[in-house]
Amino acid sequence: MIVSTTAFLRRNNGRAVLPETRPYTFNEADTGTARDSGQAGAYWLGVAGAADQAVSRLEELLDTRHPGLLDGGPGAFELRSDIAYWRGESGDATGALELFEQLLADVVSATGRDGFHALAVRNHVAYRRGLNGGIKRALEEYRRLLPDCESSLGTGSRDTLMVRNNLAYWCGESGDATGALELFEQLLADVVPALGADDFYALATRNNVAYWRGFTGDVAGALTHYRVLLEDCEGTLGTRDYHTLSARLQLGLWSGVAGDLDDAIESLDRLLPDVEGALGTSHELGFSVRHQLARWYGARGDTGKAVSILGALVTDQRRVLGDNDYRTLASQGLLSRYTR
């Protein structure tokens, strides 16, 4: 495997709305148990929010096991991929892209462009390119990557299906919401037969379909989809699972978009302690809930409450995510709007 992580990566292009769509890494459902204790320990550091520490731990392992990167085999590739991934999660998007590009050159040189490791790293490069603002190029890279995955891994491979998810994601991020919805609907039709209706990625794809349905103007349809999805997530994943909590966030968000500000605020107020209890007070999902709470308080006219929430949120996001993270900047922008 190339990367072992369940950390969630998103963009919102500065919008107050937080898309549930997301790009995926290959084999990311793995929790680190298949790795040795050193890599698994670094993984759990990253998941706990200590991405910088995860990078340091992995760099030590790389220096110990593969001094000078003389070993170009899968072991070194995996470590370097994990280092690049957690570098990005620490807030250094540019550094992560550079590391993945360097890794890709070495992997292609060793194994060619169509081997599993090369396909996985190409996925990372395209994703990080998008995060660095190169959305059009990221979309082009995914369009080239998909047929290679279909040829090498098969059209029904989980990894191929996830590349289709990423293609749809960047299609939406490029501004083509209708195209993104069409791609996600096509993906859902193939994911369910291949993986099952209750599979983790089937639920995630349903989430994406619901989001883009709302974003293209069908807010009532999005709310209906999210209500059904929430019931299924609770039954399949439990009430404390990230996806279940995220579906609740989306219900609150789209309730606000539909104009029911009181319901949005009430739902998000109930959700916040559940998210922080399950994931901790520094998790990005909790930050998203707080951002949406502030948004709807402000929309209802309670700017004092919105400013109070945003002031504390921006402080926490700067500490955890960094000053230049897009989520920090989105919250700072909303705070500036209410304090003019």
From TrEMBL:
Top-level taxon in the UniProt lineage: Bacteria
Protein name per its UniProtKB record:
Putative tetratricopeptide TPR_4
Q: Where is the signal peptide?
A: none
Instruction: Give the transmembrane region(s).
Output: none
Q: What is the lineage of its organism?
A: Bacteria, Bacillati, Actinomycetota, Actinomycetes, Kitasatosporales
